[in-house]
């Protein structure tokens, strides 16, 4: 493939050869025809022959090629959801008897998988404070096989120092994995910072329109092939061709959309930071973020589309705000055209013990604003009216 710019890559990477359609066709078939018994027998020997959609599918392969090109990875594997990608990637990397060091402040589903599920299968997991490189070093053990990161994390927007942590891991031959959902490859390129494997909830910015679940794993070809053949093929968490098509379609405008998410979110962070009704605001590219210098270095493309803040008056005032918004929509996702607003402590993280939530930087009153693509002045006007007379 030629060396293309990011917009050209987002539009053209993964295009199927020999197809006349400009818009890619959707291959919905669950299996692929053989013309003879001999061809069928041979197909099972050949790596890239289409046989059965749980193994390989041309529409799904297009999404994979697009994500690999944008992340700068050798290969990618799509899965049914972000959680299917996370669990497939982790289960490819570890086995019973291994130890994992994970960052604090992870997305609730990942946190549950690492804290509750993995130990039941004989994998030990320790947590290191997201923002403290030395905590990762102290948590390492002779049997540590994987360091798991998420930066910025959901929802606290704390950052892992990716280059410093991967350097620690490399010296010791430990695999590193990061969830790059919040930043996207437009803002942050973890593989170039030394990470081995990147995972995504493609449900979010990749899809971009809130109408398909998906996940993707990116990394070295041998890891991706093991994930495909040893894990996903047998656990069966495959994406449907239609969802892969929707997500690949959305990805053609990823760089355009992420630039606008970045712009709108930074403007909102600035507006919230100045508002006397707001107690505090956190956004990676806002100077008030405790890791602002790291954010500018590690996320050169922009601070992302999520802003978190707390209203003066705490939890009750925050709930009041949620009940009064009109343009912003109360919903659990992010990365959509629509601005979505949520209260993580009472929703996505309600099942997580409060001390674990707080260790992950999530105060009880924290509001997550997943800034959409609307006119930013309209989002500001909505929040302004919803904040009302809050002290
Ligand atoms: N990773 C992050 C950072 C997320 O925010 C989410 C979902 O919100 C996931 C993973 C899981 O993705 P999915 O809902 O597509 O399974």
TrEMBL record:
Origin: domain of life: Bacteria
A Pfam short name: Cys_Met_Meta_PP
Needed co-factor(s): pyridoxal 5'-phosphate
Any GO CC annotation of this UniProt entry: cytoplasm
BP terms from Gene Ontology: methionine biosynthetic process; transsulfuration
Alphabetized SUPFAM superfamilies for the sequence: PLP-dependent transferases
Enzyme class, broadest EC rank: lyase
Its EC number(s): 4.4.1.2
Membrane-crossing segments per the record: none
Catalytic activity field: L-methionine + H2O = methanethiol + 2-oxobutanoate + NH4(+); L-homocysteine + H2O = 2-oxobutanoate + hydrogen sulfide + NH4(+) + H(+)
Modification N6-(pyridoxal phosphate)lysine, positions: 204
MF terms (GO), sorted A to Z: homocysteine desulfhydrase activity; methionine gamma-lyase activity; pyridoxal phosphate binding
Keyword Glycoprotein attributed: no
Keyword tags: Lyase, Pyridoxal phosphate
Family label: Belongs to the trans-sulfuration enzymes family.
The protein, known as: homocysteine desulfhydrase
């Amino acid at each position: 493939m030629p060396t293309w710019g990011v917009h050209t890559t987002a539009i053209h990477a993964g295009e199927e050869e020999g197809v006349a359609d400009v818009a890619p066709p959707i291959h919905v078939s669950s299996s692929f025809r053989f013309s003879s018994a001999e061809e069928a027998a041979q197909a099972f020997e050949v790596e890239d022959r289409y046989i059965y959609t749980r193994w390989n599918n041309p529409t799904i392969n297009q999404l994979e090629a697009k994500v690999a090109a944008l992340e700068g990875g050798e290969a990618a594997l799509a899965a049914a959801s972000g959680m299917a990608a996370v669990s497939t990637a982790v289960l490819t990397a570890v086995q019973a008897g291994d130890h994992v060091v994970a960052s604090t402040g992870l997305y609730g589903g990942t946190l549950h998988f690492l804290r509750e599920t993995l130990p039941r299968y004989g994998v030990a997991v320790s947590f290191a404070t997201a923002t403290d490189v030395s905590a990762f070093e102290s948590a390492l053990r002779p049997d540590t096989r994987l360091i798991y990161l998420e930066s910025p994390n959901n929802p606290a927007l704390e950052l892992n120092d990716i280059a410093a942590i991967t350097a620690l891991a490399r010296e010791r031959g430990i695999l590193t994995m990061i969830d790059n959902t919040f930043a996207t490859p437009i803002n942050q390129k973890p593989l170039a910072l030394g990470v081995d494997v990147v995972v995504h909830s493609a449900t979010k910015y990749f899809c971009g329109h809130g109408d398909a679940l998906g996940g993707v794993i990116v990394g070295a070809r041998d890891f991706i092939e093991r994930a495909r053949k040893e894990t996903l093929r047998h656990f069966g968490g495959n994406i449907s061709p239609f969802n892969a098509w929707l997500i690949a379609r959305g990805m053609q405008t990823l760089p355009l959309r992420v630039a606008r998410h970045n712009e709108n979110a930074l403007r909102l962070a600035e507006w919230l930071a100045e508002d006397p009704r707001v107690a505090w605001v956190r956004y990676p590219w806002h100077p008030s973020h405790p890791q602002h210098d790291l954010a500018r270095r590690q996320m050169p493309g922009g601070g992302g589309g999520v802003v978190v803040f707390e209203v003066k008056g705490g939890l009750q005032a925050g709930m009041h705000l949620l009940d009064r918004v009109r343009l912003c929509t109360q919903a659990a996702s992010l990365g959509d055209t629509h601005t979505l607003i949520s209260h993580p402590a009472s929703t996505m993280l309600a099942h997580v013990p409060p001390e674990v939530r707080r260790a992950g930087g999530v105060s009880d009153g924290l509001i997550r604003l997943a800034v959409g693509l609307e006119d930013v002045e309209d989002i500001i006007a909505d929040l302004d009216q919803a904040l009302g007379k809050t002290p």
